[in-house]
Amino acid sequence: MTLHFQREVDKLKRMILNEAAMVENGLQKALKALRERDEELALEIKKSDSEIDAMEIEIEEEALKILALHQPVAIDLRFIISVIKINSDLERIGDLTANIAARTIDLVKFPRLPIPENLSRMAEVALVMVKESLDSLVNLDVELALKVCDDDEKVDDLHKETFALVRNKVKVEPENIDFFLMIMGISRYLERIADHSTNIAEDVMYMVEGKISRHQQN
Fold first, then answer.
1. Least confident of 68-82, 95-109, 134-148
2. Domain hosting residue 11, numbered range
3. Has residue 215 been placed in a domain?
4. What is the DSSP string of 128-152?
5. Which listed residue, 46, 115, 161, 178, has the most CB atoms within 10 A of its CB?
6. What angle do CA 201, 206, 212 make, to 5 degrees?
């Protein structure tokens, strides 16, 4: 490995970790805004999504440049491929975070209707999954990555419970249908965030072990 190549790889690592920190911080703020019905904070998160979009493009261009100029092999190639895929998942989490912020702005119109407990628990688990998937990336921790993959089922179960709750609520409180449809939308965003966190964890396992774990049955 040449010194020039190592410097470019180190730069790419810093870029992807900076993006990861921004995405995690954005999700924390978006869920705080949801919890507290904080319209101003939700607007801030919604506007910051363009920064993550710009970072995604910059990281992808840097990774493709390294591939073209250095033609890495073995573990170096796995690293670059994993960064490209993780970069895409981080951008999607950023988009979904902005969607949650947008729905939060709408929910402010319904101050007397409480956020369902299922959704609050789902938000907590999804946030932990994002944090732990990114920690597994920082530390190349396969065990932590495996835990993230296992936790995805918890979010799926909570999403199903929230769907059932919304379906019943719409029947008995048709006057609040707009509120409950927004709750369902947020639940779906959280479920997708958990999926992207799982993707990141699986890519960490690939980076470390060289094995593709997607779609494998337990």
1. 68-82
2. 3-209
3. no
4. HHHHHHHHHHHHT-HHHHHHHHHHH
5. 46
6. 100
